[in-house]
Amino acid sequence: MMIRLLKGLMLVVCVLAGILLVSNLGYAIDAVAHDRVQITIMPGAKAEEIVARYPGLTLIQKEPSIIVGYPEAEEQKYKQLLKMDRQIDLTVVVPAFPRIDWEQYGVVLKRSVEFYAKGELGEITFQTDIYPRNEPLERHLGDMVQRTFSYLIPAFVLAAVGGLLTVLLAVLLPRVGKVLDVLNRVLLSLPDFFLIVMIQYAAIVIDKQAGKPLIVAMQFGDQTPFLVPLLGIALLPGAILYGTLRLAFAREWQEAYVRTAYAKGLTRPMVVLSHLLRNTWEDLLAVLPRMVLVAVTSMVAAEVITWTFGLGGYAFADGVTSVSSLPVTCAILAVFTLVTNGLIALVRHRRAVAFKEGK
């Protein structure tokens, strides 16, 4: 038990470290020239006169745009001088062939770790009528977690219960099962964002027909959508569970204990509920981790499409221009997925064998 716990903790640490490394990888790619800059001069000014004022500055290009050069080691010094020059209207970086700057990458990683150690989890930038406003993630994190899990967990439960009940209906009523099989294949062939958009469209149509807002389709102010992300998250995991258990029930129908049960006079519903259902619990537990992963990814898609200010979609919410806290929210979702899958694995290890019979 202790070894399994240590392995689980090591997995969590590795995933969190991977998120930190990957999320800051963009800072390691340097695609800017550090020995030159493009400038836009004021009317009446001459590039030659500007270059002559600063020793070490050279005129590299005059047409179609003015580019001046300087020693790379003194980049910050010359950039500051050019920005303060009254005859220069604008300075723009010059693109260069991308290269990996491991030193800069190390500096950024160290700075990120220091910020996290101080409890600084990043910022969210909101656009206002006057100027952008930066707010720390900690100010909104509690509401974001509560909002996201308010429909993520119910959606997962709905997927599990709905998928199980649907497959029981398909097994007990073979004709209905054929129709459900076709619908399930169609559902699995569609991307999650398409399903969410269709649910959202249906909500808008319902609101329009009713003449008043019955179902919130997108977040507006304090109005947060619930039914749209709930159904959007639950559909694909439920379809996955249905397909898995459908195959499991088909497998169990071939076992000898089913024929024995029929010989004893048991009806089809009694065989399904008393024997087949018990012997497919291991298949149910085996597919739950995949359902959790699909539910989380569908949640992100649902929040992005509905502009919901939650863990998965806050970067695309209305009024948000930029964020520097994605590693933290990704880490929260990753830990939730790993912990949930760990609990499922624990239950599967302890109870799955006890469910089996007739083997």
Automatic annotation (TrEMBL):
Cell compartment(s), UniProt: Cell membrane
Name under which the protein is recorded: ABC transmembrane type-1 domain-containing protein
Which keywords has UniProt assigned to this entry? Cell membrane, Membrane, Transmembrane, Transmembrane helix, Transport
- Gene Ontology CC terms, in alphabetical order: plasma membrane
Q: Which stretches are transmembrane?
A: 151-174, 186-206, 226-249, 292-317, 323-347
* Entry's Gene Ontology BP terms: transmembrane transport
Domain of life of the source: Bacteria
The record's section on Pfam families has:
BPD_transp_1
What membrane topology is given? Multi-pass membrane protein
Q: Does the keyword NAD apply?
A: no
Give every ABC transmembrane type-1 domain span. 164-348
Species of origin reads Tumebacillus avium
Q: Does the keyword Disulfide bond apply?
A: no
The UniProt entry, under InterPro entries, shows: MetI-like (IPR000515), MetI-like_sf (IPR035906)
